[in-house]
Design goal:
The protein is 12% helix and 38% strand. By secondary structure, the chain is mostly beta strands. It has three domains: 31 residues, no CATH class; 98 residues, Sandwich (Immunoglobulin-like); 153 residues. The strands form three sheets. Strands 1, 2, 3, 6, 7, 12, 13, 14, 16 and 17 form a ten-stranded mixed beta sheet that branches. The longest helix is centred in the first third of the chain and has 18 residues.
Length: 286
């Protein structure tokens, strides 16, 4: 049984007696889920050591950190050359490119993973994924605006940028404050397609937020704010949206069973491998 379905089924079975005022006991059998390979990694236009993280799935009530998958043979091919990644000596399951590696817009990147036995049944398994690294226009500038909304008080980031009219584009947005990433967790990443501004100048659209009530996010005069704009594929956009929906839950409660989060990985693996175009623009808080 898949972990997501197990959790939702268990939650609904607990909720029904309360909603229906029913006193009949329920017998709940919680089966163990079979092990799956979980992969997450990005090839970006930054020149840096890019990391592909491999972990093994566990039962829902397994309350330890995900187990890294060691000893894999991990390769990346951009259509021109293929490189082998090296496993970290301090973090099992993390495989890195060299520090001088960078992605090139317009190329398609293929990931292959070999020499793994996720189910520990003695059979060696192989996995693969591919992603295009899209082109993206650079943003012009940002402006900070202090805002008060019913559920938010803090600084919003207004973006000034031209969206190309020739293509359908997809974006993700993050924020760095004084050199520290503030919005790198899944709930705080904002993704956006260009349906509302395709081919237009954004002219100050609100794209990210720094909440006064969250530790470290409150902006003070003189703080340096860097807005990170990521050009992503439609497949990666859909993956993030579906993962956020699975995390936050659907509304209304009885809207139907959740679907599996889309992946571009083969052989039943979970997660995503993405090509990402990165652009940055900064401002100093007044």
């Amino acid at each position: 049984m898949k972990k997501t379905f197990l959790y939702l089924s268990f939650s609904l079975l607990l909720a029904f007696p309360i909603i229906q005022s029913c006193t009949e006991p329920y017998d709940i059998e919680l089966d163990n889920s079979y092990a799956r390979l979980i992969v997450y990694g990005e090839i970006t236009t930054d020149t840096t050591a890019h990391v592909i993280r491999l972990t093994r799935s566990a039962d829902y009530y397994y309350n330890l950190p995900a187990e890294g998958v060691s000893g894999a043979i991990v390769r990346i091919n951009d259509g021109i050359r293929e490189i082998a990644l090296s496993e970290s000596e301090t973090e099992p399951g993390s495989y890195q490119t060299g520090a001088d590696y960078y992605g090139v817009p317009g190329r398609s990147y293929s990931l292959t993973i070999d020499n793994v036995d996720i189910n520990r049944d003695g059979a060696i398994e192989a996995y693969s994924a591919s992603s295009e690294l899209p082109f993206m226009a650079a943003p012009d500038s940002i402006r900070l605006n202090y805002a008060r909304y019913p559920f938010f008080q803090g600084s919003e980031i207004l973006l000034f940028a031209k969206d190309p009219a020739e293509t359908e584009d997809f974006y993700a947005f993050k924020v760095v404050k004084n050199g520290i990433q503030q919005t790198d967790s899944l709930p705080e990443i904002i993704v956006q397609n260009d349906q509302l501004f395709n081919g237009n100048y954004t002219n100050g659209v609100s794209v990210q937020f720094l909440d006064d009530d969250k530790p470290g996010e409150k902006v003070s005069p003189g703080d340096t704010i860097v807005f990170e704009m990521f050009g992503i594929t439609s497949e990666y956009y859909n993956f993030i949206v579906q993962a956020q929906t699975a995390l936050f839950g659907s509304n209304p409660l009885f809207s139907g069973p959740p679907a599996n989060v889309t992946t571009n990985l083969s052989n039943g693996a979970l997660g995503f491998f993405a090509g990402v175009n990165v652009r940055r623009v900064g401002a100093v808080a007044p």
